[in-house]
Amino acid sequence: MPNPSTILIVSGDHRIYRYLDSILRSDGNITVGASSSEEAFRLVALRAPDLIVLGNQLASLRGIEVARMLKANPDTIHIPIILISEANNAEARIEGLSDGLEEVLAMPVDPQEFLLKARNLLLARARADDALQQVLSLKKQLHERTESLEQMRAAIDTPGDAIIWVSRATMRIVEANPTACSMFGYTHDELIELCPSRIFGLGLRQIKRDFDNAIAGTERRQIRQAEFTRKDNSRVAIEMHRYAQNLQGNWTIATVARDISKRRGVEERLYQLAYYDTLTGLPNRILFYNTLERTLIRTEGSGLLVALLFIDLDYFKTVNDKLGHAMGDLVLAEVGARLKASVSQADAVGRLGGDEFAMMLLSTDSKRAMIAAIELQGVLGLPFLIDGHELLITVSIGVTFHREGRYDSDTLIKYADAAMYRAKQEGRDRIRLFTSQMNDEMQADEDLEQALHLAIQNDEFEVHYQPQFNSASKRLSGFEALLRWNRPGRGLLSPDSFIGILESSGLILQVGRWVLETVCEDIRIWIKSGAKPVCVAVNVSGRQWNETNVEASVVKALEASLIPPELLELELTESALMADTEHTTSSIRNLRKLGVRTSIDDFGTGYSSLSYLRVFAVDRLKIDNSFIRRIGMHRDDDALVRAIIRIAHSLNLEVVAEGVETEPQQAFLARHRCDHLQGYLLSLPLQRSNARALLVLAQSTRPAQEAQTSDMRAGKSIAEGRNPHIASDDGSSTPQETLYLVQNR
Ligand code: C2E
Ligand code: MG
Ligand code: MG
């Protein structure tokens, strides 16, 4: 049964309304009444009726005017209207019909005719509604179709993209664009009807599953990477997405693929750069660590032993220095190649940096690793024929083992490194296994480093001053500032026991600056107290030159203390000079312009290159005490010391002999015109108050001859804790008073 129609009856005349209402209701319609035009508009807006019956007798507007307004509105234009005019007036009827009303009837209305007209209009309206629905649905279909066609077109038009359409029902390729043909190496005819698994490289069952996902929409717009197979069986890296289209009830799946081999190539090159060493082609430090880490995790519980070999070339620096970096690079590349050839698939090798390599071996027992290490020694020990040169290289190898979840990769590398270091210490060209004793030593070093951190915080460092004397006049000519650690419970420690850890931990940077500032401050106090100061030499480590701005630190310390720059001397070692020549040379030059003096410490123990003495233009050269110790023992040693003094003089450098312990050494050095002497024979290093006492003594007015001998003697007496007749510690010059002197060592 059709739904009853809703009819709005608009009439200001109550009787007419009831009359029309009864006719329409009798035919099964639902009626709604409005007595004014306003009410009519409101009801129409609320819910559009299927038909409006409009009486002409209304209060504000005439029926025809209400009808015109409804027909002028696009929302209500389609609602049929029957206008009931007051009289059978042909004019009114024509006016109404020409205004678009569906019917104009005159009162009194014939019920039969009225009902018939109403029914016809309602029927026409229902048909029009159906037609409208049909049109709308057609439009929608058309839109959808166009959209998928456009998608399809867009897909086809994308340049460089291969498209393959596969019928879900037959699972055969039904269409392919020219790019697909060229990308996969088939003609169009060959491609059509091909089974898609030939190209997609997957089983049909998997492809069906993927297609069904595309049909269900779960795969829509998902871009995936895969590898497809060409006709010649080569693989092509692609990025793809899928569209499912329903064409006349059949699902067709379009696979759109883009060739990304070029992009992959770039990505692979980036990966190569990030994780491989360019010189040797071996995995770099990052990749080697990653591999080791993964292996440690993977082998957990397997019972396998992970061995780590830390390999370092011996004297590689000499190869670089003597033959140049280009040759050095060729040697490293050849070492890399030999290591690569020696490693099996399950193992790994990498270049950790410089001349350091590492190898990881998996085995069931430790023997294999030791055999491998010995073999490596042999392989790397074979002559290197490079650019017409035959080179022989030896290596130091440190070995450590990982047993079941014991160490992490960092510790393992640290241990192997420590074992390698031990191999170096023991003379190089050997293999050393990491032992528990090395572990103890490492632990002791770590404890010492901790204690040194605390020492800085707790102000446990002191500076002592070892006097230097002019060998001809025997007068005090300078001091060397030497670091001491007043370690709680252990007494005064000399740097030999901790300077290595200060260096390796980098704490030397902080402590070195402190020494510099302390020395400048002490000189300031000495000047202020009236003592005539002498130049004080401060040791500056290589790390300070390379990692800090020594020049700026010195300028700052001089400005803070306001002492004359001539009172400060910087001692450098040969290795510090060699490390960063350019930077250090310019700093030294600037500091010398300021008036600060410079000297080369421990001369003879390093490169002893005479050429850099000219390049660096230092003021003094300190002959290392190992040479001084051998004076008088052998003619060659004596000749060496004499030669150093002569060459230094010819370069206008002053010479300081350090470690003078005996009278014959002193006499020899004086005879050969070594300018200054420093050593236990003359004085031990002094505490700052005693250094000041010596200064005061040195300036006290005495007959020239007496003064000459007494400076040296006084230094020795002060150091030994005897009581020479010298100035008292408070600065007043009272030679007869006793000075309280403390022995420092
Ligand atoms: P160095 O600069 O060569 O200092 C000379 C060392 O020889 C000092 O040892 C000194 O006490 C010692 N010495 C002096 N006369 C004799 C002697 O007649 N016989 C013997 N056998 N030794 C003598 P010290 O004070 O233990 O210092 C050792 C090294 O520690 C210094 O060698 C220097 O390289 C380093 N050092 C000391 N203080 C500092 C510092 O403030 N900064 C830096 N970077 N290094 C320092
Ligand atoms: Mg020194
Ligand atoms: Mg020295």
Explain the overall architecture.
The protein folds into four domains: 122 residues, Response regulator (Rossmann fold), CATH 3.40.50.2300; 133 residues, 2-Layer Sandwich (Beta-Lactamase); 157 residues, Alpha-Beta Plaits (2-Layer Sandwich); 228 residues, TIM Barrel (Alpha-Beta Barrel). It has 28 helices and 26 strands. The strands form five sheets. It has an eight-stranded mixed β-barrel, surrounded by five helices. A five-stranded parallel sheet has the order 2-1-3-4-5, with helices on both faces. A five-stranded antiparallel sheet has the order 7-6-10-9-8. The structure holds ligand C2E and magnesium ion (MG) (2 copies).
Put the structure in a nutshell.
The chain has 745 residues and is α/β, with parallel strands linked by helices.
Which small-molecule ligands are present, each listed once? ligand C2E, magnesium ion
Outline type: elongated
Enumerate the strands of the largest sheet in spatial order, edge to edge or round the barrel: 18-19-21-22-23-24-25-26
Question: How many extended strands?
Answer: 26
The unreliable regions are 703-708, 723-745
Q: Determine the N-to-C terminus distance.
A: 123 Å
Mean pLDDT: 87
Helix coverage percent: 40-55%
Which CATH-level-2 architecture of the largest domain?
A: Alpha-Beta Barrel
CATH homologous group name of the largest domain: EAL domain
Individual helix count:
28
Task: Please state roughly what percent of the residues sit in beta strands, choosing from under 5%, 5-15%, 15-25%, 25-35%, 35-45% or over 45%.
Answer: 15-25%
Sketch the major β-sheet: 8 strands, mixed, barrel
Using only C-alpha atoms, the radius of gyration works out to 52 Å
Total domain count: 4
For the record, the CATH class of the largest domain is: Alpha Beta
CATH fold type of the largest domain: TIM Barrel
Structural class: alpha/beta
